């Protein structure tokens, strides 16, 4: 890991993870809007979408590991996943976010604090 990473080096993995998660969320959950579609079509469509997810995810982790530990990368991934999924579930699936979801998200954000904090 780099001692003093540039802003770009720190930010590029986060942006790649963000893009990756948009593809991942559509691959995993986008088909829920099309429940009448045959499952085999849904599976192949999801695989096709997941290809683009991996095209962003793998470089995000490869580049990110120069700056972040594996635990930090995984934590970033989970937080980004929750943010993308929350937006997706409201806008694409028409579901609401409830207070208990927000509490759960806040607890995961608290975990991220401890993973990124330097306690010596």
Terminal-residue CA separation: 17 Å
Shape: flat
- Spans with pLDDT under 50 lasting ≥5 residues? none
- Classify the secondary structure makeup into a structural class: mainly alpha
The DSSP helix count reads 4
Number of separate structural domains: 1
> Percentage of helical residues?
over 70%
Name the beta content range: under 5%
> What about the largest sheet?
none
Number of strands: 0
Quaternary structure of the protein: single chain
Radius of gyration: 16 Å
Mean pLDDT: 91
Secondary-structure element pattern, one letter each: HHHH
Q: How would you characterize this protein structure?
A:
The protein has about 120 residues and is mostly helical. The chain has one domain (about 5-115). The chain has four helices and no strands. Helix 1 packs antiparallel against helix 2 (about 40-65), helix 1 (about 5-30) packs across helix 3 and helix 3 (about 70-90) runs antiparallel to helix 4 (about 100-115).
How would you summarize what this structure contains?
The protein has 120 residues and is mostly helical. The protein has one domain. It has four helices and no strands.
Please give a handful of descriptors for the protein shown.
74% helix, 4 helices, single chain, mainly alpha, 120 residues
Topology:
Elements: H1 7-29, H2 39-64, H3 70-91, H4 99-116
Helix pairs in contact: 1-2, 1-3, 3-4
């Amino acid at each position: 890991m780099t001692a003093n990473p540039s802003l770009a080096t720190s930010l590029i993995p986060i942006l790649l993870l963000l893009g990756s998660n948009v593809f991942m969320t559509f691959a995993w959950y986008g088909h829920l809007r099309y429940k009448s579609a045959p499952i085999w079509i849904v599976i192949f469509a999801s695989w096709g979408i997941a290809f683009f997810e991996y095209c962003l995810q793998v470089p995000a982790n490869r580049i990110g590991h120069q700056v972040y530990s594996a635990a930090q990368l995984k934590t970033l991934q989970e937080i980004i996943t929750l943010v993308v999924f929350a937006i997706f579930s409201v806008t694409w699936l028409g579901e609401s976010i409830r207070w208990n979801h927000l509490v759960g998200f806040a607890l995961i954000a608290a975990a991220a604090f401890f993973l990124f904090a330097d306690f010596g």
